[in-house]
Amino acid sequence: MTAHSQRLRRNLLVGGSTGVLLLLLFLYPTSINHVDHPATPAAAPGVVSTSAGDVTVNGTSAGTRYGPVQVRITVRAGRLTAVDALVYPSSGGRDREISSYALPQLEQEALAAQNSHIDTVSGATFTSDGYRRSLQSALDAAHFRSAG
């Protein structure tokens, strides 16, 4: 075998191997942060109930990069008294970890602010944005006007 044919054979082997590795690299799923079907279906937006001076309203489901976020609010005597996350990113361990620390902070801020003008939780930018959008839609549906 001549030196030229050996080089050609080696180049073909290296090039073919590189091509196969690149193909495998591009086929490897790099993220599980997509949601084909949310684990918890979104609740219908709008007023859920009115009783004993409480008005309970579901916000719209706000799509985010990591899955939908939807909140339910309760208003009593013109004050926001409760904000509960109904739907939030939870498809993977990291999503559940982020939601477990972000959602209580977002709820606390919403109750303190009495509106949707709340800070983004560090490390939970997309969830915070979806939370704000769903919260604002619930406040709008409840015809809630904050004092501030």
Automatic annotation (TrEMBL):
Domain of life from the UniProt record: Bacteria
InterPro entries per the UniProt record, alphabetical: FMN-bd
UniProt entry tagged with the keyword Transmembrane helix: yes
Keywords linked to the UniProt accession: Membrane, Transmembrane, Transmembrane helix
Annotated FMN-binding domain residues: 65-142
Transmembrane segments: 12-29
Name by which UniProt lists this protein: Uncharacterized protein with FMN-binding domain
